[in-house]
Amino acid sequence: MEKVVHYPEVGDIKYVKSKRAKRINISVRLLKGIVVTVPYHSSYTEAERFVKEKLDWIIKTKNKIEKVEQNQTVFTNDDEYRTKFRTLKLIPEERKNLRLHVSDNFIEIYYPQYLLVTHAGVQDAIKRAMEHAWNIEAHEYLPSRLNDLAQQFDFVYNKLTIKNTRSFWGSCAPDNSITLSSHLMHLPDKLLDYVLLHELCHIIHKNHGKEFWALLNQVTNGQARLLAKEMRKYNTQIY
Question: What is the pTM of this model?
Fold first, then answer.
């Protein structure tokens, strides 16, 4: 069960009833809008009252999200887009459906020529294909690059896992196993290396204390804080 209520201050808010929810929860997510999860035992009236109490927070959070969304890539035929190893080709044809193909050198999107390339369906297809390419390239590139950096700076990690996750760039487990997001592949090389070194430093220091940052600064030639600041410009949700 769900309903949508329009608020002049923030636009549409979707209310969704959930059997799993234990309390009313507000989610303001990138590209997803505002969703209020409502436990089955709670009424929509109660949920709307809760939203009005939290309206200032919703406005502030929505404004932050919109600033990030403004940086979202819109793929067109006017510019060239590349992953690390492949070039995106957008090909209009006399066809009714979309077809995606990732080869050794190209990411090919065949779409109906009566559609604009900016059509939401075409853009979604491009993003799916880009994610598929990043996942392939992550498995091709990240293991050897992580191993090279580990050897260069005398780190020893347990194992590497690569996931198509948007919730984090990388993590280091207590047993020194490292997990990396395939979305790392759309970072510039220096920032990709920064994330790998960041996780390798967690093998020695499991927190973000002074000793951790001193080590990270050492292996990044004194650039740790600058690179960390630059990382804030990037988001796994943005292409």
Answer: 0.68
